[in-house]
Amino acid sequence: MPAVSHLHKWALGLGAVSGAILYYYSAQGHSDTKPLRVHNSWTTNYEPSVKWDHNWDRRDPKSLVKPMKINTENDENKYNEKFEAKKAKAVRHILMIRHGQYHTNGKTDAERVLTELGRKQAEATGKRLAELKLPYSLIVKSTMTRALETSQIIEKSLINVPVEDDGLLVEGAPIPPEPPIGHWKSERYSLYTSLQFFQDGPRIEAAFRKYFHRAEPSQEFDSYTVLVCHANVIRYFVCRALQFPPEAWLRICLKHGSITWLSILPSGRVTLYCLGDTGHMLPQNVTSS
After folding, report:
1. pTM of the model
2. What is the 3-class SS of the chain, one letter each residue?
3. CA 218 to chain centre
4. For the chain, what is the largest distance between any 2 Cα atoms, rounded to a whole number of angstroms?
5. From the CB of residue 208, how many other CB atoms can be counted at a distance below 10 Å?
6. CA nearest neighbour of 212 among 277, 263, 157
7. Would you call the peptide bond into 217 cis, given omega within 30 degrees of 0 as the criterion?
8. Residue whose C-alpha is closest to residue 83's, from 101, 70, 72
């Protein structure tokens, strides 16, 4: 057994390319000692548990340009031209707004109107969106009463922004949650059933595919789309966009009038700027149900 004076010495070396490498040096002077690698996000030999799907929106240029046999420089130039023509240039920003607090005791959707507090929440959110001074491209609202009313209030702060309705954005049950919650109630059923997931799931997934994708190659400038809709829809969108398990959507809590901001880069990468932000509201005005 080596004496105390022969304790091994350690030194930590950091490299931007190879990652953090813990170098082991022996005081014995052995030449066969090897570096021990500490896995960091930039370490080239690190294997992630789940890899990012770069073609999640089916718009990766590599999947849109037909492979061709390249024999000459001219062939290579032609391929590169086709590839560049399919590449996105701008960023698509999606700002999702949950509707304000509403009367949950209404028997029909028409009766589930915003409460007075819900109207204050929508007004605060509209002012916050205006303060951000973003060049908003479009406002799209769910056709349910509480979303329509919320959007109408927000629109007063975002003047001259085009507005559309979309029934794909109405509230629903996107996918059975994990872990399951058997007592969770819906508006149309006393309890969520497999039938409702079967009906709502494809519609909400269709809404995701409609709004979440990288920009068209023809889009020259960044776009900012506001979606005024519902908690279940937004939570599902977040999970899908970030490539989290979609069954995890019910683990997220969203407050009334909250702002959730996602950005889709030309490369197809997705960034979450904020999730359920209500910092623009007075604390006493923040509610979730």
Report:
1. 0.81
2. CCCHHHCCEEEEEEECCCEEEEEEECCCCCCCCCCEEECCCCCCCCCCCCCCCCCCCCCCHHHHCCCCCCCCHHHHHHHHHHHHHCCCCCCEEEEEEECCCECCCCCCHHHCCECHHHHHHHHHHHHHHHHHCCCCCEEEECCCHHHHHHHHHHHCCCCCCCEEECHHHCCCCCCCCCCCCCCCCCCCCCCCCHHHHHHHHHHHHHHHHHHCCCCCCCCCCCEEEEEEECHHHHHHHHHHHCCCCHHHHHHCCCCCCCEEEEEECCCCCEEEEEEEECCCCCHHHCCCC
3. 23
4. 83
5. 20
6. 263
7. no
8. 70
Helix 145-155 × helix 116-132 angle, to 10°: 50
Q: What is the pLDDT of residues 109-120, one digit of tens each?
A: 999 999 999 999
Looking at residue 77, its amino acid is N
Say which residues have a Cβ less than 8 Å from residue 1's Cβ, sequence separation at least 6: none
Identity at 47, one-letter amino acid code: E
In the chain, the amino acid numbered 52 is W
In the prediction, which pLDDT does 166 show? 98
Measure the CA–CA gap between 138 and 154, rounded to whole angstroms: 12
pLDDT digits (tens, 9 = 90+) for 54-107: 999 999 998 988 887 777 877 677 878 888 899 999 999 999 999 999 999 999
Give the closest residue to 138 by CA, choosing from 157, 153, 121, 160.
160
